[in-house]
Design a protein that fits this description.
Layout (H helix, E strand, L loop, with lengths): L1 H22 L13 H16 L14 H16 L10 E6 L8 E6 L4 E8 L2 E7 L6 E5 L4 E10 L2 E12 L2 E13 L4 E9 L2 E5 L1 H15 L6 H6 L24 H14 L5 H5 L12 H12 L9 E6 L8 E6 L4 E8 L2 E4 L9 E6 L5 E7 L2 E9 L5 E10 L2 E6 L2 E5 L1 H11 L8 H8 L5 E2 L7 H6 L3 E6 L1 H4 L5 E9 L5 E15 L13 E17 L2 E6 L2 E7 L3 E9 L7 E7 L8
Antiparallel strand pairs: 1-2, 2-3, 3-4, 5-6, 6-7, 7-8, 8-9, 9-10, 11-12, 11-21, 12-13, 13-14, 15-16, 16-17, 17-18, 18-19, 19-20, 22-23, 22-29, 23-24, 24-25, 25-26, 26-27, 27-28, 28-29
Length: about 600
């Protein structure tokens, strides 16, 4: 009996303890003000909507916020405050998402339609944190620098002493990594520079003017005059504009890059949707709302193809499938009819991946293949000339074997991940190695000669190619200085077609050869400057080409070859030759700007 009473008493005490525990109130967890990106975007839209309506904002109260929340709130209020007197410009503001460091977490950007970044957020422990805030472009601004890098400037003035700081950085996880941090201190009153400095390993050290200019060169090249440009557009995410008329994306065609067939279908659709491509319209985002995008990658690939001219109606885009790295899987090569390569996709785990040749620099570029299967890239603008050699590795990665660069500040070689300054003589030697083909060919002609690439147009011609070609004059231009040993030697060959029937045609060539010799009446006293006069000779050739197996071929006057007719270009393929004017190989003829028929 005592044992039973003991058990009952213990059970009674236990139930009482449990009951007391249930009745004890718990402190509620304080909800996070900015728990998700959606919360940040909602507050961004709320503040700017109030500003656009002319409402007065409540004073910013961060008393109950932690450090993370306070930083976000101050950044959002800073943007709204900057636009207090610019409510008509609020429609230019938007937001977008892009994974900048490839870690699977997309960053959130608050930015303008001209690619000025006001704030960058990422996630840390699942919650948004502020990485960069740049609310007032009169004292600071942040922008894309191509690839995964950014430029940031901050300017401050105290008692007529101005301090300008310049940064280049990238995002790694939940923090920033500064590649460069440098600047200058100016005395505005006396218009003098007091100090040039650089921050190295967290320590600020004084540097000389030459070092500062070399550091500043890359920054200055992309930030002068305007905040817009190809480097920004290729790096920025798809921008959602909450203050503009909404677009029904469900009614738009999908930009699909999930397979090679899908990529080709997307390229066709781009040519249909875009009647006339202009780069300035691409930079301003005019073409962004012609398609819907299922991922950040799809939008990035779409932008790349627009920039490289795939949607251009001036040139007909085509394609070929070819194994460039010998791994047994074909790459998809997009190219024009003249064999200028515009994009290459490889496959990783069955998914197409774009080889991005423009990550180092945005500007004009020329892509070609050499006889070793290496990918060569020439890139440049007014301030830079670069010549890169890439290898597509067995695992589908793009490996930079070497890069030579010429800028106004010097010449540089990048190899094995290291960059060093080189002499003019070293640069010229490397330059000669880069151009590994005969001077009377262009890079696109060399690509056709040494690679297995072919051209298949995405859209079939609507007119008879032969009849269209006969109404025009075609020409090709070649350098001849090395082969002739004469200064400035070059040639231009013109081609026309006459007496065309279903079975044969007459092909006429006019060959002009020009070189320069010293002007005897003008002797220069300045070293390196010489007065010259041109010497030009003309010669002619006519052959009859006969149609065999659907191709016009000829074998006369010491040359044997064929003619391939295209929509924008004509190809003359010389198979055998004893005529020094026509070396063996493929020649690409472009439409000449004169309608004069060769006699």
């Amino acid at each position: 009996m005592k044992k039973l009473l003991s058990v009952l008493l213990c059970l009674s005490f236990l139930l009482t303890a449990v009951a007391c525990k249930k009745e004890t109130p718990q402190e509620p967890e304080t909800p996070s003000v900015y728990a998700t990106y959606d919360d940040v975007v909602a507050e961004f839209i709320k503040l700017l909507t109030a500003k656009q309506s002319g409402e007065e904002l409540e004073a910013l109260n961060t008393e109950d916020m932690d450090e993370r929340e306070t930083a976000i709130a101050e950044a959002l209020y800073g943007i709204a405050d900057f636009y207090e007197k610019k409510p008509d410009l609020i429609q230019r503001l938007g937001y977008g998402y892009k994974d900048m460091d490839g870690n699977g977490v997309s960053e959130l950007f608050l930015l303008t339609d001209s690619s000025i970044i006001y704030a960058i957020f990422t996630l840390s422990d699942g919650k948004p944190i502020l990485l960069v805030s740049s609310c007032d472009i009169s004292t600071s601004y942040c922008k894309f620098a191509g690839g995964d890098r950014f430029f940031l400037t901050r300017d401050s003035v105290t008692d007529h002493i101005e301090e300008a700081n310049y940064y280049t950085f990238r995002i790694e996880g939940d923090h920033l990594v500064y590649d460069l941090a440098y600047g200058a201190i100016y005395d505005q009153e006396n218009k003098t520079v007091l100090e040039y400095f650089q921050t190295v390993d967290g320590n600020r050290v004084t540097i000389d003017k030459e070092t500062f200019e070399e550091l500043y060169w890359e920054y200055e090249r992309t930030t002068t005059a305007t905040f817009t440009g190809p480097s920004c557009k290729l790096s920025e995410p798809y921008i959602h504009f909450p203050f503009r008329e909404s677009i029904d994306t469900a009614a738009l065609p999908v930009a699909d890059f999930s397979s090679y067939d899908a990529i080709l279908s997307t390229c066709k659709a781009m040519n249909t949707q875009i009647e006339e491509y202009k780069q300035r319209d691409w930079i301003s985002g005019k073409y962004d709302n012609l398609f819907s995008f299922q991922s950040e990658t799809d939008f990035a690939y779409y932008s790349y193809l627009l920039y490289t001219g795939v949607a251009s109606n001036d040139y007909k885009i085509g394609y070929d499938l070819i194994d460039l790295n010998g791994d047994g899987q074909d790459e998809l090569v997009l190219l024009f009819e003249d064999f200028r390569i515009r994009a290459i996709f490889t496959q990783k785990e069955g998914v197409p991946v774009l080889l991005n040749f423009l990550s180092l620099h945005i500007g004009t570029f020329d892509c070609w293949l050499d006889d070793q299967g290496l990918i060569r890239i020439e890139r440049g603008d007014n301030d830079l000339l670069g010549f890169d050699t890439y290898e597509l590795t067995q695992n589908g990665d793009l490996h930079l074997k070497s890069s030579i660069l010429m800028t106004e500040h010097g010449r540089y070689l990048t190899r094995d991940g290291k960059t060093e300054k080189i002499s003019r003589e070293e640069y010229l030697e490397l330059y000669d190695d880069y151009y590994c083909y005969a001077e009377y060919f262009d890079s696109n002609e060399y690509t056709r000669e040494v690679s297995d690439l072919t051209y298949t147009p995405l859209t079939q011609p609507t007119e008879d190619l032969v009849q269209s070609a006969t109404a025009k004059v075609w020409s090709t231009h070649d350098d001849r200085e090395e082969t002739t040993g004469k200064y400035g030697a070059h040639s231009t060959t013109y081609m026309t077609f006459e007496n065309v029937t279903d079975t044969q045609m007459d092909v006429s060539f006019k060959y002009e050869f020009t070189y320069y010799y010293p002007d005897p009446d003008h002797v220069s006293t300045v070293p390196g400057i010489n007065y010259t006069l041109p010497d030009t000779t003309e010669s002619f050739l006519k052959v009859t080409a006969r149609k065999e197996n659907g191709v016009f071929v000829f074998d006369e006057n010491g040359i044997k070859g064929r003619i391939e007719f295209g929509q924008d270009y004509q190809w003359l393929i010389i198979e055998q030759s004893t005529d020094e004017r026509f070396h063996v190989g493929p020649y690409c003829f472009r439409e000449h700007d004169s309608s004069t028929i060769i006699s």
